[in-house]
Amino acid sequence: MPAVSEREAISVDERERSRIGEIERLYRRSQGQRFRLVGPEGQEIELPESLNALFREIVRILARGDGVAVVPVHQELTTQEAADLLNVSRQYLIRLLQKGEIPYRMVGTHRRIALDDLMDYKRRRYEERRRGLDELTRMSQEMGLY
Predict the structure, then answer these.
(1) pTM, 2 dp
(2) Over 80: is that where the pLDDT of 94 sits?
(3) How far apart are CA 73 and CA 119, in angstroms?
(4) 3-class DSSP assignment, residue 74
(5) How far, rounded to the nearest angstrom, does the alpha carbon of residue 37 sit from its chain's CA centroid?
(6) Of 69, 66, 58, whose CA–CA distance to 23 is shortest?
(7) pLDDT digit string, tens, across residues 23-67
(8) Could you count the other beta carbons within 10 Å of the beta carbon of residue 82?
(9) Residue 121 neighbours by CB distance under 10 Å
(10) Under DSSP, is residue 84 helix (H, G, I), strand (E, B) or coil?
(11) Angstrom distance (rounded) from CA 112 to CA 104
């Protein structure tokens, strides 16, 4: 089993992805029940709900072929790491920082962004887009276009 460190992206090959797909199907059939870990000597422990939810999300992401990185919540990111998480260019992210859209702090001449703040921004943007789409749908329905 390869060693994994913070921020290092984990991706899987086709064979592993197939096995992870089996785990994902097992999760779907479990209807929200918690999974158990079985130790080398047969001892069992039920996963706490927080770990169960995290594991389920990791399985879902890996099953669709995307990579996963584990980053502590209080982690600070570089501008490039933050841009990568938002799927935007570094230059665009810096404009967001300069406009005050996302808080940051300076470490020498480098900007650092708290992961919490970045995820708050991402949630706000998602909610704004959702409201905009809902409004467009409502207007389309009123006009008989939808």
Answers:
(1) 0.55
(2) yes
(3) 9
(4) coil
(5) 24
(6) 58
(7) 999 988 887 788 889 999 999 999 899 998 899 899 999 998 888
(8) 26
(9) 18
(10) helix
(11) 6
Distance CA 80, CA 100 (A): 17
The answer to whether the beta carbons of residues 76 and 115 sit under 8 Å apart is yes
Domain ranges of the chain: 14-63, 76-142
88 vs 80: CA distance, rounded Å? 9
Phi first, then psi: what are they for 32, rounded to 5°? 85, 0
β partners of residue 107: 110
Q: Which residues face 80 on adjacent strands?
A: none
Residue with the two structure tokens 């927080």: 50
Other CB atoms within 10 Å distance of the CB of residue 124: 12
Task: Say yes or no: domain 76-142 is CATH 1.10.1660.
Answer: yes
Integer Cα distance of 105 and 109 in angstroms? 10
